[in-house]
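Posted in: Structural Biology > Protein-Ligand Complexes

Title: Requesting predicted complex, methionine sulfoxide in pocket

I'd be grateful if someone could produce the 3D structure tokens for the following input. Sequence and ligand are given below.
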Amino acid sequence: MAEKLIIKGESKKERYQALLPQLESLVASETDIVANMANIAAALKEAFNFFWVGFYVVKEGMLVLAPFQGPLACTRIKFGKGVCGTAWKEARTVVVPDVEQFPGHIACNSASKSEIVVPITKTGEVVAVLDIDSDEPDAFDETDALFLEKLCQDVLPGKF
Ligand code: SME
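-- Reply #1 --
Done. Output follows.
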């Protein structure tokens, strides 16, 4: 298992390209989903210095806070509520360039300015979401969506 990340590259795309295979090998040798979510949150934080990066898992009909890196966050989110609940309900990636313009956005921290939420689906059901917040507006684009979807669709579902 790689215990030290090597993230080279100037562009975001290059950094994701360097990171993804390392995340794959990181989780390949570990079956515990909490351990894997914890290391992935840490790796994404280290690679991109996101303001907040973490997971919410579907439990008892709600999204419940799971491993994350960053400031304290809300612990439970209802189906269809906020950006996370919307990504869960619609089973699709939601990119929010300006959180103040997203109806029903849940402000866990007022420093958060933009956000991306990517669902993790197993056998047709959303089992968790990956949520990333930036303290910069408009921080996320198709590159983030592409690579984070690879992570959430190819690497993680088999671990749930
Ligand atoms: N902003 C999210 C809530 C989770 S925090 O950002 C960590 C939302 O609207 O669902």
